[in-house]
């Protein structure tokens, strides 16, 4: 299926918190916290592209552009992508990711990257469809719990 013309794809920014008040419960992992949404959207390095169907956010892609002392240009880290189960297989994931990548290009990023599991077939298919290149070696993600003493 193709992306419906009634789906609005757009990048949110500071002042767009109200858009995140109506989100399909299946699009994000957890309910939206209005304070965190305001904090996220007010930070110019944080970006979220959303898909809106009849006033409800049904998909998103979020990321952070960052600079590093040994990198000549900023990079875009794609943090997360989600689409409500009722709206999958319609091109929404690709559309919000394209919107996020366009934002990175506009900021001067020449590279974007994302981590996913190899067995996440929908994600692997999506990233391949937009010419994402797999790294030549396996990577391991390590998590640190910071809410307890070391």
Largest sheet: 5 strands, mixed
Helix content: 10-25%
Number of beta strands? 5
The average pLDDT score comes to 89
Please report which band the strand proportion falls in: under 5%, 5-15%, 15-25%, 25-35%, 35-45% or over 45%.
15-25%
Terminal-residue CA separation:
50 Å
The name of the CATH superfamily reads: Gcn5-related N-acetyltransferase (GNAT)
Give, in spatial order, the strands making up the sheet with the most strands: 1-2-3-4-5
Order of helices and strands: EHEEEHEH
Tally of domains? 1
CATH architecture label name:
3-Layer(aba) Sandwich
CATH topology: Aminopeptidase
At the first level of CATH, the class is: Alpha Beta
Count of helical regions: 3
Cα-atom Rg, whole angstroms? 16 Å
Shape: globular
Structural class: alpha+beta
Low-confidence sequence ranges: none
Layout of SSEs?
Elements: E1 7-12, H1 34-42, E2 46-53, E3 56-66, E4 75-83, H2 92-106, E5 112-113, H3 121-129
Parallel strand pairs: 4-5
Antiparallel strand pairs: 1-2, 2-3, 3-4
Give an account of the 3D structure:
The model has no long low-confidence stretch (mean pLDDT 89). This protein is of the alpha+beta class and 150 residues long. Strand 2 and strand 3 form a beta hairpin. The protein has 3 helices and 5 strands. It has a single domain, classed as Aminopeptidase, CATH 3.40.630.30. It has a 5-stranded mixed β-sheet with strand order 1-2-3-4-5, with helices on both faces.
